[in-house]
Amino acid sequence: MKIFDPTKHQAKKRFGQNFLHDGNIIDRIVSSIRATEEDNIIEIGPGLGAITRQLLPITKKMNVIELDRDIIPKLKFNCDGLGELIIHQTDALKFDYDQLYTSEPQDGESSRVNLMRVVGNLPYNISTPILFHLFKYANKIKDMHFMLQKEVVERMVANPGSKTYGRLSVMTQSVCDTRMLFIVPPTAFTPAPKVESAIVWLAPRKKKLDIKNRKLFALIVAEAFNQRRKILRNAWRKRIGTVDIESLGIDPSLRPENISLEEFVKTSNFLS
Q1: Phi and psi for 144 in degrees, rounded to 5?
Q2: What is the pTM of this model?
Q3: Structure confidence at residue 25 as a pLDDT band (50, 70, 90)
Q4: Domains of the chain by range and CATH?
Q5: Which site in 44, 105, 116, 177 is 20 to 30 Å from 255, CA atoms measured?
Q6: Who's near 59: CB < 8 A, 6+ residues apart?
């Protein structure tokens, strides 16, 4: 099948476009996803369809979200005859993913919950806001596979005590189990980005954390890491006293990068 050459499409900086062309990397991503015909796959930023072309013949039907209207005819051309491709020409940051979560009646069944499986090569300049937007739909998502800047993935999967552990680590892990799968070099893309990339797997927690007030939780995490060199008693001085921090079994002289996710939850629930 003849496909559109990515080197002949002018990548748009405002959309953060870098087109994946390395066949080995594409195969590794598709193998990691392990798609089946029953899966409700949603792809964000399909571009010219490097991943879409591999998944669509398996799933027979896919929804994709693409902002760049100029690339859509080329995406359609590259995926022609491979399956039913439903294209939503819109901003992934504003998209209502509820419309892609289905509960379809089956023979002999009242309904079948069809959780979303989200994949994509996210624009690096807005990857974190997209992730936080998707977290709102966590109870309707089975898992997510994303290509992101390696530095961002390292922060998402970081453990307490590491230099990369911070707000993104805590907020991501409060919603999802996380795992970095593998690193992708700049040479795998056209045009080549200036940074290394990585594939991350995210799966909404089966055992949800008991966070009584999520807005308050997000606020105390942000306050803790706003000035990460501050110790807790100073970072939270307007919110909780030293004695109360100690009553929770937390050392108020520690810095936020040494506090576990569970301790952030404990503090948030105490304040709520």
Answers
A1: -140, 140
A2: 0.89
A3: very high
A4: 6-204 (3.40.50.150), 214-271 (1.10.8.100)
A5: 177
A6: 35, 36, 37, 39, 41, 83
